[in-house]
Amino acid sequence: MNFLHSALSEHIVCKKVINNNPMPPEQLETIKMSNADLMAAMSCCNTVSASDLGKLITSLRNQMMAKLDEALKPFDLTAAQFAAIKLIANGQADTLATLCDIMQHDKGAMSRMLCRMEVKDLIVRKPCPHDGRQFKLALSEKGASLFPQTMPVANSVCELAFAGISEAKRTEFLTMLVHCRKNLD
Predict the structure, then answer these.
(1) Residues of the chain with CATH 1.10.10.10
(2) Which residues contact residue 38 at a Cβ distance below 8 angstroms, ignoring those fewer than 6 apart?
(3) Which sign does the torsion angle of CA 13, 16, 19, 22 carry?
(4) What are the residue boundaries of the HTH marR-type domain, all occurrences included (predicted)?
(5) pLDDT tens, position by position, 124-153
(6) What is the value of pTM for the model shown?
């Protein structure tokens, strides 16, 4: 049995749901209970199903990106620009195509973002010696000096997300996410 709940002043109204089908309104029992009582009741029977995985990961990603966008404002950077800088700085990406593959962005959007980063003097594009149509990406002097300043900011957002979770659980969580990605490759 699961409960659907909605806030009603200081109480929560719980409605019985059997086999994921809400009972018809005329058969519903409405019970008033405190938030604490509701949380205790839900802790034993409220489970997240495997079908919620994508929604939860997307929601977490969106929340983290919004927090990172806010935290990086003093550096005049977005979370996506920071991710590109980090990938370039760590030698994981040096072309538009590689950044697109890793960051799951389309080439047009990525190209526009790289243009904005070039205008901000964060990156430089050099013609690829083997293919005149491509460019190799590198951090500019400004981008290279900005990167170490922004890492603590990014780490603080991760720490915020992991607040109250033990190191062992963090490691287990990250290991499981990597495993899930490998399963889908």
Answers:
(1) 52-184
(2) 3, 5, 12, 14
(3) negative
(4) 50-182
(5) 999 888 877 788 999 999 999 999 999 999
(6) 0.70
